[in-house]
Amino acid sequence: MNTATTKLLRNNRCLFLAYDQGFEHGPTDFDDKSVDPAYILSIANDSAAYTGIIFHEGIAQSYYDKAKETVPLIVKLNGKTSLHPDEEPYSPQLCSVDEAVRLGATAIGYTIYIGSSYEGKMMEEFSRIEDEAHTKNLSVILWAYPRGKNVIGKEQDKDVVAYGARIALEMGADFVKVPYTGSIENVQWIVRSAGTTHVIVQGGTKVDEQTILEEATICKKAGVTGMAIGRNIWQSPDPIAISKKLAAIIYED
Amino acid sequence: MNTATTKLLRNNRCLFLAYDQGFEHGPTDFDDKSVDPAYILSIANDSAAYTGIIFHEGIAQSYYDKAKETVPLIVKLNGKTSLHPDEEPYSPQLCSVDEAVRLGATAIGYTIYIGSSYEGKMMEEFSRIEDEAHTKNLSVILWAYPRGKNVIGKEQDKDVVAYGARIALEMGADFVKVPYTGSIENVQWIVRSAGTTHVIVQGGTKVDEQTILEEATICKKAGVTGMAIGRNIWQSPDPIAISKKLAAIIYED
Amino acid sequence: MNTATTKLLRNNRCLFLAYDQGFEHGPTDFDDKSVDPAYILSIANDSAAYTGIIFHEGIAQSYYDKAKETVPLIVKLNGKTSLHPDEEPYSPQLCSVDEAVRLGATAIGYTIYIGSSYEGKMMEEFSRIEDEAHTKNLSVILWAYPRGKNVIGKEQDKDVVAYGARIALEMGADFVKVPYTGSIENVQWIVRSAGTTHVIVQGGTKVDEQTILEEATICKKAGVTGMAIGRNIWQSPDPIAISKKLAAIIYED
Amino acid sequence: MNTATTKLLRNNRCLFLAYDQGFEHGPTDFDDKSVDPAYILSIANDSAAYTGIIFHEGIAQSYYDKAKETVPLIVKLNGKTSLHPDEEPYSPQLCSVDEAVRLGATAIGYTIYIGSSYEGKMMEEFSRIEDEAHTKNLSVILWAYPRGKNVIGKEQDKDVVAYGARIALEMGADFVKVPYTGSIENVQWIVRSAGTTHVIVQGGTKVDEQTILEEATICKKAGVTGMAIGRNIWQSPDPIAISKKLAAIIYED
Amino acid sequence: MNTATTKLLRNNRCLFLAYDQGFEHGPTDFDDKSVDPAYILSIANDSAAYTGIIFHEGIAQSYYDKAKETVPLIVKLNGKTSLHPDEEPYSPQLCSVDEAVRLGATAIGYTIYIGSSYEGKMMEEFSRIEDEAHTKNLSVILWAYPRGKNVIGKEQDKDVVAYGARIALEMGADFVKVPYTGSIENVQWIVRSAGTTHVIVQGGTKVDEQTILEEATICKKAGVTGMAIGRNIWQSPDPIAISKKLAAIIYED
């Protein structure tokens, strides 16, 4: 395990605060508070619950001060807007590994839409990024999200999600971020398929607090390394409280 | 804020004289006077109203003397003619950052057609240009114009335009040029979505003088940094007078 | 104006002998004499009427002796055969700028099919060629020919041809070669749209001698810099005589 | 024959343990034991039956310790998931030759889908990889698998498979991995078409033990250099036993 | 004429032994003898009839010993299988010029399918190869074969074949290999269209001995430099005899 990966773990577990939704969904996810990246950083700092925060390049440039922030930076290298809902989506690289290094990143993130007809193009791009990032001592996180007409309706199926997790292992990712698949047994098979690659489960759309805490408990029992959560935190009326509750579940022995 | 960006501001506001229409629309926008780039430069010099002038490479080469001009040069790096009205438009890069530096540019401009199915290709290209331009101490202006069948009829919708402004922030642009969306509240949300990125509103097709001055007043109240105007200036019978009136609105405290 | 451009002018006017038809149309344009590039060179030498001769790379390699020829060489860098009549044509680059330099070229030529759906691809390619050619002290000639379903039937329209001439200015060409549009007024607007870029009119298919001389007269009166003529010369029974008559019209004060 | 190729041979024959199915088919090929790459390595080590083991980059990174493993490593450079069953498949490069060298590889593998409309694209990619791998003293193994509508139903035809084997020779591969074509005569023609290139036959889907041993016997008699087998080993209840039986057939004089 | 071109001539004429059919048609062209490249080399050596032998990279690597062979090597750089009969064919580059140099090549060969909608792509590729090969003192042979729906049925028409020969001249090839067009007059026009480029006629499918000798006689009378023949040699019962008869026709004064 490289030293960058170690920095993203606390008690061998992780919790990432996701804030790439301004790119992926646009400002409609935000209100007057959450539209401001400084507010998100304050949640991370005040809750002390996170081992990583996920930004695109521009947000990191203007809001993340690498000389003083304590939560490690994860720069998401590719992205796609929701303005054109392609049946077979592709997410292009929009930030170089070198720029991520300049911004003070500990890790980079990259999405492959598993099952899309552009899957191979994203795999090619990711394979080069993975090599370069490891050479430059960054940790590598693969977003493995099923998309496209061949997997439609199966985005949370055990076998499809496990395939995505396996790809992460076969391609050398340190972490793989996957959808939640709904039972301890399912999540266990995904963890097993990923081998030495750390599995992290995404939070997804805003649900009630009890639901997200139960998901975290199931994931923990199934052996995942952690979770990456955004809307369920900063759309919450009390982001600090929910952050601390999740941290208690994820990091406990 | 880099020093190039500072050069484009007066009292923390900006007014840009746009003259890329010969490329985007052809000479039909011009009459015997406005077809001549020297005439446009004389408007900028004589009115003293502008903090930037927008040219394509060839016009800058032949008409902008970097040793003697006082209005900063903005070189538009990509462009598309109106000869083939593509449903999903793409605007290719037609000038390098290095050439812009040689021409004496203070900033470069680049258009992303937000919503077009080629959006991702333009984003990729812009992401490389943004890095290179910042490395070479240029300011970076993103033209974020909604286009394509998924946003048709919504080119001036608050949420679509705010999405474009957000993309500019997420990708690290210093300025974002957007369509006018019609009310103080709408423009305010766009400014808020853009965070630390300066919002500038485009002038668009020729309207009567009162209309463009009212738009400027609304934009100013909503908190934009400035405007970029072309046809409403050089198609006017008195370009100097209208330039001075706009400057009075934009730069006043 | 760079020194290479100056070499292509006589009394600030130019006349180019075009011989790229073997590539564009095939040997069917030729008879037993004109199929031989040495014959074409002899017309240029014996008439003393030309300020440039247009060849593709291979012809220049085998027939143009840079140590002894007196008429400046213009190497056409891209080309397209007539074997597959594409509705939306593209003309690929087939010779590098460096190779043109080795061959002793004073200028390079490049075609953009204005209006074609591949227009943007040719513009991108031309923009890189223009930069490189100017860096290496060559003059740059843009062939701006309207093609494609959006301009079909308008290949000689004033506004379409003026748009092509304007693109040449906006992109930094030294010369733009355009179709003949048929009246002094039309050609004047094209010259005005091209600004500091020299306009040269193409000769086109073989017409009777009186017609081509009248065209030359109209072009001269409209303010063009010159003409580029091929078939009307070397398909003529007396190429030397027609060359001298054209030269008299073009170069006279 | 380069020294890397020699390392993959025992008594001028070879037997490779294939484990790229996690990438090509997903974890559905695995059970709780075979999902673990460490288990596969233990089969190779404990049976002493193999002259090579086939992994993708990520598995090699995390499980293959080049300082201590004795079975030579073959890194598969391209791959394709089964999530989108393309009529005309393409398999992109996902690992560089340099990365294979760093991982301690003795050989690289690459698939060309012979007959696919993307065949030419894979051939281009393979031609560059073959040059680079040979320059860096690696052996080169071509997977030549017929795919696509023009060869559907003929994936095991003598002439189609022989064509694939010939391509391997014409392109400079050291080994070619081909489907089993079912008779000594057929396999002999394939071996003859491959000239100096070593032919290895794939094991394919799980069959009963007697069947796979008979195939090995036929292949041996036809003059192949060896086989590459995966599922018929690690889906077997006794992988060590079947490995030793195959080795006895393949390596015997 | 460069020195490499000179090496391919005997009495200013040439005869090439073609053996790229294993790539273009597959082993179905071969029998048990002709499938072996060593047999083909023995024909060249024993007949002393040839000024060049045509191989793909892999065959040259394994069978052509540059330290001892006397017949010059021509490496074919691109190729296409017959497994997918594309209406508009493209033949990708599969060997670099540098690799051809390492193999001891005197010349490289490259096919452009004249008339194919991919013609431009092959021309672009060939233009770069031609420059590089000449820089490295290799001779350059263009295979100019009419293909595609726009020339179907006209693959041996005088004007179409002459156009291909002209392209070879316009692009700087030293030799152009063309189909046989059937009369002295036709072949003469092709030779004239090719200017300083040497015309060589292909042998094509196996015909009876008298026919191929008559074709050679007509070609010789029409002024071609030579022929490139494969199947009519190594599918013949007496390859040495037919080779010598052809040589007598081609090389005689």
What is the topology?
Five copies of one chain form a homopentamer.
Chain A: H1 3-7, E1 14-18, H2 21-24, H3 37-47, E2 52-55, H4 57-63, E3 73-76, H5 97-102, E4 105-114, H6 119-135, E5 139-146, H7 158-171, E6 175-178, H8 184-193, E7 198-202, H9 209-222, E8 226-229, H10 231-234, H11 239-251
Parallel strand pairs in A: 1-2, 1-8, 2-3, 3-4, 4-5, 5-6, 6-7, 7-8
Helix pairs in contact in A: 3-11, 7-8, 8-9, 9-11
Q: Stretches of chain A where pLDDT falls below 50 for ≥5 residues?
A: none
Largest sheet of chain A: 8 strands, parallel, barrel
- Overall geometric form of chain A: globular
- Strands across the major sheet of chain A, in which order? 1-2-3-4-5-6-7-8
Q: What helical percentage do the residues of chain A reach?
A: 40-55%
Assembly type of the shown chains?
homopentamer
Please state roughly what percent of the residues of chain A sit in beta strands, choosing from under 5%, 5-15%, 15-25%, 25-35%, 35-45% or over 45%.
15-25%
Order of helices and strands of chain A: HEHHEHEHEHEHEHEHEHH
Class inferred from helices and paired strands of chain A = alpha/beta
**Measured distance between first and last alpha carbons of chain A:** 21 Å
Q: Can you give the mean pLDDT of chain A? A: 97
Helices of chain A, by number, come to 11
